[in-house]
Amino acid sequence: MRTDRLLNFIPDDKYEKLDEETRKNLLSYRNLYNNVNRKEKKIKGMVHKLKEERELLGEMKGDLTSKNSFIDHLRKTFYFTCSVVKFKKGNYIYYNITISKKGDSPKNVSMGREETIRQHLSEHYDDKSFLHKSKDWKLFLKSHFVIGEGYDKVLDMILDNPLGFKNMTLNRHTFFPLK
């Protein structure tokens, strides 16, 4: 800020000769000027601190990248995604749960036709009203295999057999056994 804005060119002995209203306005102005100066210094300090934090973040990201190679095998072995896939065979539409792992062929879990799935889920949960509570059974299956018990069960299977599902038969009974 410009120093002439401070109005310090009026000596103290002359300041006393100013009328009360002018002195009051000048004092208010000088206070505001000082507050603005403090705020500018604070902002400059914060900008400097932000630059330091950005540099530190860059270093941390570099460290993260260098450590990535030590855990990349965990992604290859344990990371998977599940999705609900429909396909048509003859005059019927069937559904599978597809489990995909990086570097492996996807594993399809046969769920059957819609009527079969809905009936099976109803029997598994021993709740005839399941069909009414969960009208969107596809969304139920998706969430079950993305964040629910199905996801946990698939992860347990991978932990027990990290090489894959090649010799395993998976179907709706695997994930939703009847009682």
Total count of strands: 3
The biggest sheet amounts to:
3 strands, antiparallel
* SS-derived structural category: alpha+beta
User: How much β-strand is present in the residues?
Assistant: 15-25%
Q: N- to C-terminal separation?
A: 80 Å
* Sequence of strands across the biggest β-sheet: 1-2-3
Question: How would you describe the shape?
Answer: elongated
Oligomer: single chain
Count of alpha/pi helices: 7
Name the average pLDDT.
87
Poorly predicted regions are: none
**Rg over alpha carbons:** 35 Å
Instruction: Kindly give the count of domains.
Output: 2
Order of helices and strands: HHEEEHHHHH
Helix content: 55-70%
Q: How would you explain this protein's 3D organization?
A:
The protein has 2 domains: 3-76; 79-175, no CATH class. It has 179 residues and is of the alpha+beta class. The protein is built from 7 helices and 3 strands. Strands 1-2-3 form a 3-stranded antiparallel β-sheet. The model has no long low-confidence stretch (mean pLDDT 87). It has helices spanning 12-15, 20-78, 114-124, 130-133, 137-146, 149-160, 172-175; strands at residues 80-89, 92-101, 107-113. Helix 5 (137-146) crosses helix 6. Strand 1 and strand 2 (92-101) form a beta hairpin. The radius of gyration is 35 Å and the shape is elongated.
Please render the helix and strand layout as text.
Layout: H1 12-15, H2 20-78, E1 80-89, E2 92-101, E3 107-113, H3 114-124, H4 130-133, H5 137-146, H6 149-160, H7 172-175
Antiparallel strand pairs: 1-2, 2-3
Helix pairs in contact: 5-6
